Amino acid sequence: MGGPRPRPAAMTALDPSVALAPPRIAAGTARFRRMSLALFLGGFSTFSLLYCVQPLLRTFARDFSLTPAQSSLALSLTTGALAVAILLAGAASQGLGRKGLMFASMSLAALLNLAAAFAPSWPLLLLARAAEGFLLGGVPAVAMAYVGEEMEPRDLGAAMGLYVAGTAFGGMAGRVGMGLLVEIGSWRSAMATIGILDLLAAAAFFLLLPRSRNFQPTPARDRQAQAAAWGEALADRRLMALFAVAFCLTGVFVTIFNYAGFRLEAPPYGLSQGQTSLIFLVYAFGMVASSTAGRLADRWGRRTLVAWGLAIMLAGVLLTLPASLPSIVVGVALVTIGFFVAHAVASGWVGALAGRAKGQAAALYLLFYYVGSSLAGSAGGAFWRLGGWPAVAGFTAVLALAAAVLALRLKEPRLA
Questions:
Q1: Omega prior to 268 cis, within 30 of 0
Q2: So which residues are the signal peptide here (predicted)?
Q3: Where in the chain is the domain with CATH 1.20.1250.20?
Q4: What is the mean pLDDT of the chain?
């Protein structure tokens, strides 16, 4: 009477004709806690491996008889290879799966860090580091895809926030930990220790991360459609301006940290490697700045926040010019705060400007970001050799000003 009665949920679940979407992960559940810890470990592992050599650049220059620019290749080649790999990793994960690809990337990269630790020559160390960067590209892009597929939409921000926190903590811990480990051993034993710790982190990541339930392997998409999406992102002048901002941002940030160690370990400061590495603790200020930048952008506008971040970076660069050690530390702290503010807002701005090509636009932003780290980080060595710290400061100041001009010329979209 009155039509057919609705079927019970149990019958619906048993009926193969009724398709039910697999449940997504919600905040507050055991699966969310496992996934959050796994993503934190993934971010920690990736960025501790990536940046652990930054405090060692002066040591490499001394032990292998290199110029500062040559020693910076231990980081620049890694970030450059990572930039290329990010473009490939997303497509590869569509056929290979998310969890397995991330675990393989993390564990093989950790093994390559061990290989770099015991490399008998500089070319072999660089080869291991370049391969390590290429493999690490399998984590950032794929982690974002995994979270997008498996998380409840309302909890996406919380999940990605923990991953970003892991990357920030890993970047700081890799730098500071390496400097302190060198104080009690050699740089080779320090790199090996980081490699072993990150192998353990990869194993824990694999055990903790819930298996994918919403991943559907897909064949290679139509090449014409792919080319159109990439072309759409590259043809948008606003996006290209933001990509250039990303290049300049990371160029300033990495160059300042690359050569601050050379300056502080030389007279008149004469700091030890362990003492110099403590400057990376200012990274904690950046972690706080990035978490608040989004809320401020909603109130003041994205263009304003990016410009303020770059202005803070520029002020920090100028504060590093005096010989006063406190002034240098405050200057580096301001560079860090400004970088995280501008990067957090600019990376979100990409998504707001991109149309259908959001994935391609995000990948291109990361590509320019890491290419800036690679090219500017090495170019800074030539400036250091030619004119010392004033030349490095001048180079980075020009990059910060160029980024500010690009950002201020962008029209502010309506905030979502």
A1: yes
A2: none
A3: 29-212, 230-416
A4: 82
Strands (E), 80-133: none
Each residue of 323-357: pLDDT tens digit? 999 999 999 999 999 998 888 788 777 767 776 66
Residue type, 47: F
Mean local confidence (pLDDT), 130-144:
85
85: Cβ–Cβ under 8 A, 6 or more apart, which residues?
Answer: 133, 134, 135, 136, 137, 138
Q: Are 293 and 305 in contact (CB under 8 A)?
A: yes
Total-model pTM: 0.76
Determine contact, residues 175/55, Cβ cutoff 8 Å. yes
Q: Which CATH number fits domain 29-212: 1.20.1050.10, 1.20.1250.20, 3.30.70.120, 1.10.10.10?
A: 1.20.1250.20
Token digits of residue 371: 């290419």
Q: How high is the pLDDT of residue 298?
A: 61
Residue with tokens 């400004």: 338
CB 287 within 8 A of CB 340: yes
Task: Quote the pLDDT of residue 222.
Answer: 57
Please tell me whether residue 222 adopts helix, strand or coil conformation: coil
**DSSP letters spanning 343-379:** HHHHHHHHHHH--S-HHHHHHHHHHHHHHHHHHHHHH
- Cα–Cα dist 115/228, whole Å: 41
List Cβ neighbours of 60 (8 Å cut-off, separation of 6 or more).
53, 66, 71, 74, 122, 187
Looking at residues 96-114, what average pLDDT do you find?
89
3-state secondary structure of 193: helix
Rounded (to 5) percent helix, strand, coil in the chain:
80, 0, 20
Q: What are the two backbone dihedrals, phi and then psi, of residue 25, each rounded to the nearest 5 degrees?
A: -85, 130
Question: Into which CATH architecture does domain 230-416 fall?
Answer: Up-down Bundle (1.20)
